[in-house]
Design a protein that fits this description.
- Helix 1 crosses helix 9, helix 8 packs parallel to helix 10 and helix 13 runs antiparallel to helix 14.
- With 484 residues, this protein is of the alpha/beta class.
- A hairpin with a 7-residue loop joins strand 3 and strand 4.
- The radius of gyration is 24 Å and the shape is globular.
- Helices cover 40% and strands 20% of the residues.
- The chain has three domains: 298 residues, Alkaline Phosphatase, subunit A (3-Layer(aba) Sandwich); 109 residues, no CATH class; 63 residues, no CATH class.
- The strands form five sheets. Strands 7-6-5-8-1-9-19-2-20 form a nine-stranded mixed β-sheet, with helices on both faces.
Amino acid sequence: MVKVVVLGLDGATWKVFDPLIKAGLLPHLQRMMKNGSSASLISTNPPITSPAWPSMATGLNPGKLGVYSTLKRSKSNVFSLKPVSSSVYQGKAVWDFLSENKIHVALFKIPFLYPVYKINGCMVSGFGSASKFAAYPSYLHQMLLSGPSQLLEAQLFKSLRTLDFNNVKSCVRFIEQLRIVVQKEGEIILKLLGTLRWDFLFYVISPMDWLQHAFMDKIVRLTTQIGSEHSLELEIMEEALMDFYKSVDFLIGRFLKLVEQTSDDFVFFIVSDHGFTIRPYVFNLARWLIRNRYMKVHEHTERRHERSLIATFILKASDLSKSKVSGQILEDVLKVLPGNALRKLKRTYFRARYKTGISEYTDLNSSKIFCLEDHGIYINPLVKDTKILDKMIHDLNDYLKQFPDLVLKTFRRNEIYWGDKVELSPDLIIRILDKDQIWDTSTDPTKPLIFKTSLPGIHDDYGIFLAYGSDIKRGAPLKKTVVK
């Protein structure tokens, strides 16, 4: 029986790996590159985790899966959104077909693989689906919770929002925590594999994605220094980043050793769901749509930014420990707020955002076009104007003419998707490019029209693909491979 290992490096990009491999800093990847076959793996559109991993595992494009973002729309109510779950995989993924044919599979930390389901082998949930943690068979649950589990990963992911990027010690500590998660989690899975029967292994390392969101500018600086006369003069944060990538390579080496020792006939794949690049600015799509009267927001939202400092304080205070000091301060602030303002703040900041599936600030009935949390553009089905999308694209192009370096790219649903769930997709996906850099888009109307975010990294189209094994052609040239 051929053993197959698929190791997923969430967000891995050749932009980072190529310089490090050529410098001999990642010896296990270097050996696999030299003796295997590699390519750039083109992601889904948009290139984000939630449609990309299911598309890779099933071979189906988002139009057949109905997945275009972290939220999945319902056919019965296209404006009802629910988190993507394992239902997009079940019965369609490669491991389901293997399991049906009595082949033992071992699945670890594949994003949005929750809830887990019965399979011929084991399954451990991955990042996403509200970051819940589960395992099949159930006895694995407690064993895996003893190490750096999904719960710790979720805490680290949330801490990105409050990370002080000007504090080197805090950043180094965060990078080191991510490295420890990768190292310890890998050790637990390797130990577990020694007790299990398996023929197909699929394991995804998610922390790499978060690392690159937070430090892509510094990672690019690090890789451009490699090979120069200053490459040994790394700063503290760059050393921490280098240690992270070395630990990933070391873990790859351990999995490679495991499969080489247990089988003479194997294939080892290393893949990523998308790549990464530096994010220069964010264009606030929601604010532009409101300004140009395509989208309407509820009245309480239009003045929300004027209350943002008070509301932010209330949110912060609600997370503080229940000390007498913090409790008294919060109590004093609430006393000076008029009742109407307090009710609106509670409604705006504490109500579940996806209770109805629509961002709570959107006045759906009054909007001609609106954008949801997936950054896609949707036409209100009540609008009868068949040219409304053409007009919006024309107006947006006109607005962007004041920025000579900006280019608007538009993708209509029938140009990029096909299948029985295309009607659930956005009517339009846009990309704004500044030369070769991709701008992000925002759907929060309380933020400025153009702003710079603290997270410098953004997904791009080009992930990685590397195959190594007994029957893999050696030294095949780098070329692009598309997931359909």
